[in-house]
Design brief:
It holds the Pfam family LIP. This protein has helices at about 1-5, 15-50, 55, 150-155, 180-195, 210-225, 245-250, 255-270, 285-295, 305-310, 330-335, 360-370, 390-395, 395-405; strands at about 70-75, 85-95, 100-110, 120-125, 160-165, 200-210, 230-240, 345-350, 375-380. The protein has about 400 residues and is α/β, with parallel strands linked by helices.
Length: about 400
């Protein structure tokens, strides 16, 4: 009995097919780890090196005047995406009044030979990250992380340029939701990318933006023929764009999003449009005005809980009156809403139907209005997408649309 109990023949043995399956899975996992190490290991190590002289790079020179789009400062980035080259740039642009300003950003281009005529330039407009200088994406660890669809864009052969906008990264006036300044930032970033010989950037341009960046991309498309006529805007794509600011504000007058976004926007407008009577005392309560410095010092993504904590006491008590019907704020919101001008490039508009920030009906109405103005508009609603996920969930449809446009 004991001998039978201890006999090896009586011990359970793994089935040969099961062992082979485990072996295949183990090998696949080892290979995946190896691929990730090759792709991301140098990038993470390089990011650490790129952070060492960060403050010096963003110090503005005494003189900022110069040709819009010309590069003031440039440095190669060690933590670049796989199979690509990248640079951090400081370049010249202009604000809503035409005054010279500086902006910062990054340029990324794939390795390999460029096509005849140069690569298409994809100008990315990032969603709200804050308004403080430290909230600029190019100053962060891994400045490419939030360029939505970057891998797909590089694989298409695009040179990608991502601006921080004026007033972020490098010192300058606030420009949050100021359409003209944002447009100039994007278009001059394209010019700066074209000035980098290794980027092989041509005159063909695709504009792609999310939320705040959607507003920037739309304004850039509207102003390109007069502001940067040497560029050819071949396609414009936006995800949950801050296109109609009146409806955006109206939807959030009495909630924490209104207090948070309003803290950025109304301080910006008060600074930029002071000469037009944009006095915060005419639109924000004393409690709202009191929290503005603290709110504007924080970044949206990394400090969201703290922002909401500070804003909570003034929710429902942020505005003295409805800014969409109170002057000069109502006019300023209209002027900084997209759609006043049409453009020739085809337009792709993605909108998440679970979005609680940019109201889906507002985006649908915007797309319909542009179509009625004779524009080529593709409206792409996504049932399960919210404000944070819409751009990523739109990438498959976006790529198919870009293929159809031949860019």
């Amino acid at each position: 009995m004991n001998e039978m109990a201890e006999s090896p023949a009586q011990k359970p043995r793994a089935h040969p097919r099961l062992r082979r399956t485990f072996l295949i899975i183990a090998c696949a996992l080892v290979a995946l780890v190896g691929i990730l190490a090759v792709a991301f290991g140098p990038r993470l190590f390089g990011d650490q090196l790129d952070q060492k002289a960060l403050a010096e790079f963003y110090d503005a020179p005494a003189e900022v005047a110069g040709e819009p789009g010309s590069i003031v400062r440039i440095e190669p980035l060690q933590g670049h995406p796989f199979d690509a080259m990248a640079w951090r740039i400081l370049y010249r642009t202009t604000d809503v009044n035409g005054a010279p300003q500086l902006a910062s950003g990054v340029v990324i281009t794939p390795n390999g030979d460029a096509p005849d005529g140069g690569r298409t330039v994809l100008a990315w407009g990032h969603p709200t990250t804050g308004s403080a200088r430290d909230c600029a994406p190019s100053r962060g660890f891994d400045p490419f992380l939030d360029i939505e669809g970057l891998r797909m864009l590089l694989d298409r052969g695009y040179t990608v340029v991502a601006t921080d906008y004026v007033g972020m990264g490098v010192a300058g006036p606030d420009s949050y939701l100021v359409g003209d300044t944002a447009a100039h930032s994007m278009l001059d970033a394209v010019r700066a990318a074209r000035a980098i010989e290794e980027a092989d950037a041509g005159a063909s341009v695709v504009l792609w933006g999310h939320s705040q960046g959607g507003q920037a991309a739309l304004f850039a498309a509207e102003y390109a023929p007069t502001y940067a006529p040497e560029l050819r805007i071949d396609a414009v794509a936006v995800a949950a764009p801050a296109a109609e600011l009146g409806s955006l504000m109206q939807a959030h007058l009495d909630d924490v999003s209104g207090a948070t976004i309003g803290s950025y926007a109304f301080r910006s407008y008060a600074d930029v449009y002071r000469d037009r009577g944009a006095d915060l005392a005419t639109i924000l309560t004393p409690g709202a005005r009191e929290i503005l410095p603290e709110m504007n010092a924080l970044c949206l993504l990394s400090d969201l809980d703290e922002l909401h904590k500070i804003a909570e006491p003034v929710v429902g008590k942020f505005f003295l009156s409805d800014p969409t019907t109170t002057e000069p704020w109502a006019t300023l919101l209209r002027e900084n809403s997209a759609g006043a001008l049409t453009f020739d490039a085809p337009l792709f508009v993605a909108q998440g139907l679970k979005d609680q920030l940019v109201v889906p009906d507002s985006t649908k109405q915007f797309a319909q209005a542009q179509r009625e103005h004779g524009m080529d508009v593709t409206y792409h609603p996504i049932a399960l997408a919210d404000h944070g996920t819409v751009a990523y969930l739109a990438l498959i449809a976006l790529e198919e649309w870009l293929d159809a446009q031949g860019v």
